[in-house]
Amino acid sequence: MFADRAKITIRSGKGGDGHVSFRRELYVPNGGPDGGDGGNGGSVIFAVDLGLNTLVDYRNSKKFKAEDGQEGGKKNCHGANGKDIILKVPQGTVIKDFETGKVIMDMSDKTEPVVILKGGHGGKGNQHYVTSVMQAPKYAQPGQPAIEKTVILELKMIADVGLVGFPSVGKSSLLARVSNARPKIADYHFTTLVPNLGVVDLGGGKGFVMADIPGIIEGASEGKGLGFAFLRHIERTKVLIHVVDASGSEGRDPVDDIKKINEELASYSYNILDRPTVIAANKLDLLTPEEREISLSFIRDEFPDAKIFPISAATGEGVREMLLYVDGLVKEAPDDLIIFEPEIDVNDLIDSPELPFEVKKSDKDDHTFIIEGPRIEKMLGYTNLEAEKGFIFFQNFLKKNGILTMLEELGIEDGDTVKMYGHEFDYYHE
Question: What confidence tens digit (pLDDT) does each residue in 67-88 have?
């Protein structure tokens, strides 16, 4: 079964709680704190599997959860870290946020696994909270909470050339003739219900990957019929072959078909029609020489600037000439794979705008400022400040949430200290 779209819920692991305990040794009645730290929660990781070509595994299973970290133990025992969950997807999969529809990650060019939801850090045991005035702390830090997110997985095929056109114009027959693909072919509408990929080998090092996009109907760009579900597969193609039934055997007008398909493509994506396109006037084997010329003249008159190839997918007439021309277009196109840039930073998924925070000046020192609150604690729990990317996210977090402005309003000066949950920074104005 082919599936190119799935809605799933993913959840990272909760960090294990820190432990509260005290040493119990013979002849030491009042032992110090020895509560261990909680383990880190597991992360949700996506990885490309080149052996997959469908998202069918995500049609029945809807929720995927990483393991929680274990609570810390006595005698400074560290809780076990939760296991990551690795979700394998086909190359070409785009991960989107369900609520906004924005791109989280395009897995098409990812050769290494990608962490989408990072597990929560484990909480610190009570041994970390000893102070000069508190020698027996009965408090331990709770583990960072899990993050849950509903995402959409969309498979956008990676092909050099896309075959587009109305149902039953001969796209599947053309793909079967010129490639190693063996799509099901029958003489009725919507025979092709899944996109098919085939490798076109022209010899001498020439060739490309071709995709047969299932029949598009009017209104497809608005979600009507099956067309909308397959239009996404056109987005990565470098060249389009617009296949029409020049014989009118299905009672269709090839000129009208070309106009309608172009309207659907333009409505779906403003730049699809900017890529090179050729018109394959198919099924000429059903026409007499006179009828052929009449049909082709109508198409040429209406589209004088288009490159038109009279062909017959059934007999092979004109097909190789067209493919050699298309191969040239593919070679001239940029080699870069079309990648959909992230519209949401993965780190933004850890933010919880509903949680409060506070920015204040220290009561003990006019040159020390404190930033605290559940939102700050959660953000720090998921951010690795020692990594460049994590520190950049941390700086952007402070700026985006107006924290730097709040510090300036409180009178912070260059060289002053900023404290937040065990972290200290020297402030310098940009």
Answer: 999 999 988 899 999 999 999 9
pLDDT at 64: 96
398 annotated as belonging to a binding site for a ligand: no
214 among annotated binding-site residues: yes
Two structure tokens written together for 203: 């010899």
Looking at the structure, do residues 207 and 305 belong to the same domain, yes or no?
A: yes
Q: Is 198 annotated as ligand-binding? A: no
Residue 169, marked binder:
yes
- Is 225 annotated as ligand-binding? no
164 is in an annotated binding site: no
Closest CA to 230 of 342, 326, 150, 154: 154
60 among annotated binding-site residues? no
Number of domains in the chain: 3
pLDDT of the residue at 382: 66
Within this chain, do residues 200 and 107 fall inside the same structural domain, yes or no?
Answer: no
Whether residue 192 is annotated as binding a ligand: the answer is yes
Domain shared by 5 and 149, yes or no: yes
* Residue 109 counted as domain residue: yes
Q: Is 346 annotated as a binding residue?
A: no
Task: Write down the residue that tokens 């003990």 correspond to.
Answer: 364
Q: Is 168 annotated as a binding residue?
A: yes
Q: Is residue 342 situated within a structural domain?
A: no
Same domain, 1 and 136: yes
Range 289-297 average pLDDT: 91
Q: Is 295 annotated as belonging to a binding site?
A: no
The answer to the question of whether 108 is labelled as a binding residue is no
